[in-house]
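Supplementary Text 2. Reproducibility record for the structural model of the 225-residue chain.

All settings were left at their defaults, and a single model was retained for analysis rather than an ensemble. We include the record here because the model underlies the residue-level annotations in Supplementary Table 4.
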Amino acid sequence: MSSIRWTLFLIYSVIAPLMLASCLTTPETPDTTPSIPTISILMIQDGHDDSTNLKVAPNSAFSLKAKVSHSSDSNQLDFVWMRDSKILGTGRIIDIDSNGTIPNTLKVIDKEDNFLMVTFEVILNTPPQMEETTTPSEGDTLYGNFFTTFFFSWASTDSDEGETCSHFLQIDSTIYFTSDLQQVQQAGLSEGIHRFRVWVVDSFGDADTLNWRSFTVIDTTGENE
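Retained model, structure tokens:
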């Protein structure tokens, strides 16, 4: 009887580890959920690659590029560029000439004909421009004292119809927001050399800045003596 029990123990001790090893090496159920790629639209213009800023001046040539979240996915996808429902081109990159129709939709299709629609908008915007003429002009001399109100003026233009622009005036180290005003009066300037500059920003963030202008305040009133 003892011999039988010992034989059974030996058989169990060999089989049990094999069963345990078998459990440990059983593969998990594969994940069959399809991976949905993320598509980004990039702009290529004037040698600048892959800008996410989809903004361009009117009548300018540029290219649009589709970027896939996983680079390996791009070889399994087809890209169709459209303006609304009109097809303008295919492929990961589409070139737009200066007078070309600009797409606003990208259809991405996989090998099983599943598709993803990506909508976007390319902004056409002309940056504002500062004119060179200002008051005071470079090197001007202003006469007064700390309490005298001095006149500052400038001009800017923007060719986009209906565009609203904001202006900033910096005198020495102080910056003043003047909104759409292009002239202000400012006191509080001590005798001596000062400098100022102005910049304009449109509603799309495009800007233009004048170089610094220097002027001199001379106190002829004697009120600061």
